């Protein structure tokens, strides 16, 4: 084992560094670009990088909000949302959609994006996005710390009830991750990563029929 000198801290007491390394270390993280629609038809769109796919069948994905934001307030009531893939050409639009604007501002319009219809939810997907997943809410959980003290953070879990894939990303029926050039959040104030063929490699895992 290599001899290393480890920096150690307990986050509750502060990291003692110029910038909190937490999201740089757990990165790059996929971006949950979440669209939703309130009861008055106002559209909402925002990126969430505390996001991931969490289960195969049923397909469940989740994202976490670090305070009670518009997306959570709307989704709590409407029980529906759509996840949209952020690719390189949509990076600027995704960033604009993170603006802290009043609830009545349509973030599709703000970011110059086209709402496209879904099949199973009343929420539009981002028409320019090459993959979208229609979701119905399974759970909204307020996070707690290890002592059970409630945190100002909410985890939204949704079951995927419809998947839209640009057919150009399917080669012989196999989805081509690198062809989409998805971008991921890589920590610090402004670091991102992009997936390309050069940054991918193959490794087969040991046999295990439990998945
Ligand atoms: C790439 C990126 C990732 C983000 N990830 C999160 C996140 O995981 N959780 C969160 O609460 N805010 C996150 N934000 C900030 C929200 O997008 C921002 O607060 C937004 O205005 C929330 O919109 P809403 O109020 O319409 O829900 C992120 C912003 C960017 C640009």
- Major sheet size, sense and barrel closure: 7 strands, antiparallel
Structure summary, number of beta strands: 14
> Which strand order spans the largest sheet, edge to edge or round the barrel?
3-2-6-9-10-5-4
**Helix fraction?**
10-25%
Q: On the 0-100 scale, what is the average pLDDT?
A: 97
Number of helices: 5
**Beta strand %:** 35-45%
Q: Uncertain spans, ≥5 residues at pLDDT below 50?
A: none
Concise synopsis of the structure shown:
The protein is mainly beta and about 210 residues long. About 15% of the residues lie in helices and about 35% in strands. The site of flavin mononucleotide has 17 residues, from strand 3, strand 5 and helix 2.
Describe this structure in words.
The protein is built from 5 helices and 14 strands. The chain has 211 residues and is mainly beta. It has a 7-stranded antiparallel β-sheet, with helices on one face. A 3-stranded antiparallel β-sheet has the order 1-13-14, with no helix packed on it. The protein has a two-stranded antiparallel sheet with strand order 7-8. Bound molecules: flavin mononucleotide (FMN). Flavin mononucleotide (FMN) binds next to β3, β5 and α2.
């Amino acid at each position: 084992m290599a001899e290393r000198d480890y920096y150690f801290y307990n986050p509750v007491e502060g990291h003692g560094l110029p910038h909190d390394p937490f999201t740089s270390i757990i990165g790059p993280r996929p971006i949950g670009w979440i669209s939703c629609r309130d009861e008055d038809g106002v559209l909402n769109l925002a990126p969430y990088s505390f996001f991931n796919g969490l289960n195969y069948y049923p397909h469940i994905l989740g994202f976490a909000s670090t305070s009670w934001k518009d997306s959570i307030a709307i989704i709590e009531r409407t029980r529906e949302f759509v996840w949209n893939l952020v690719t390189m050409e949509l990076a600027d639009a995704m960033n604009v959609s993170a603006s802290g604007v009043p609830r009545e501002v349509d973030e599709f319009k703000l970011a110059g994006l086209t709402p496209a219809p879904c099949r199973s939810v009343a929420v539009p997907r981002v028409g320019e996005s090459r993959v979208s997943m229609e979701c119905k809410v399974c759970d909204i959980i307020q996070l707690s710390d290890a002592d059970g003290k409630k945190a100002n953070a909410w985890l939204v879990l949704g079951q995927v009830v419809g998947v839209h894939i640009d057919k150009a990303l399917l080669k012989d029926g196999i989805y081509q991750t690198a062809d989409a050039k998805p971008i991921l959040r890589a920590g610090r104030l402004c670091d991102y990563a992009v997936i390309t063929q050069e940054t991918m490699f193959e490794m087969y895992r040991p046999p295990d029929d439990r998945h």
